[in-house]
Amino acid sequence: MLQAAGRDSRFVFAVLTGVVGLYGLLAYFLLPLTWKHYEHQKGLAGLIMITRTGADIPGDPINVGAVGSNDDVLCAMNAAQWYPADPLTLRSSIAIVGSVLLDRPYRGAPVSHLYYQGQREDLAFEKPIGKSADRRHHVRFWKVLDRGEEGRAVWLGAVTYDRGVGLSRDDARITHHIGPDIDSEREQLTADLTAAKVVKKLYEVSGIGPTLDRRNGGGDRYYTDGEIKISVLVEGCAERSATVAELSNPPLVELKNLAWSAVAKALLSNETASGPSDGN
Q1: Contact partners, residue 198, CB within 8 Å, separation at least 6
Q2: Do 165 and 177 touch, CB atoms closer than 8 A?
Q3: Single pTM value for the model
Q4: Sheet holding 50-52, edge to edge
């Protein structure tokens, strides 16, 4: 029986190795020149889809977007029950430390600054988990186009899950550490906006590309299929959309996403078996 179990374990390992190997072949050698796509938002082509810290260290990747005015974004996030983050000041910094140490709510806890195209985030929102500010979903947005394909402003954002507070691996400063599965955060924010009926249309454009093991400015690793999901928002705070039009990706991008889904399942299975990542 032990021999049979050993054979089964080796078989599963071999299958996973084969899947990862096949994906690596597709991802890094055969398809990179063909799956970049900006057909739904041509003005984003050529942009580098990663943020940077104040020390010019690569930060969180861009993985979400929104189309609409500043007020449209504010109203949509409010409807989805994501709260604006307070400005980062001495007072708010002390308040977030108190929230973590005393396990008390602070739904408007500030976020550290990140920079995209040399600019600090224009808007930041969060969705608390539990009482303390040490765990939360949060997103930063930058307005990158005044007029996109829809004739409205286009915002790009980086959404992640803060799983706890610790020291940055790069500069030893106190920071939030993020969970590695940033695609699930992208889907969570999109689902919240859709459930609030503030989204008219959804589509994807290329982000940083498929990434199996990369680290952000705090030293936390992450993985992603490399896509950015963009929500075209309703116009006006009182408007609601009963249906959402979801635009399709080019066939090769769908093939890439299908291959990635198998890799993501293996990564999630490994995360579950080994316990939470410590970011080191």
Answers
A1: 75, 76, 79, 80, 231, 233, 234, 239, 240, 241
A2: yes
A3: 0.77
A4: 58-61, 50-52, 115-116, 119-120
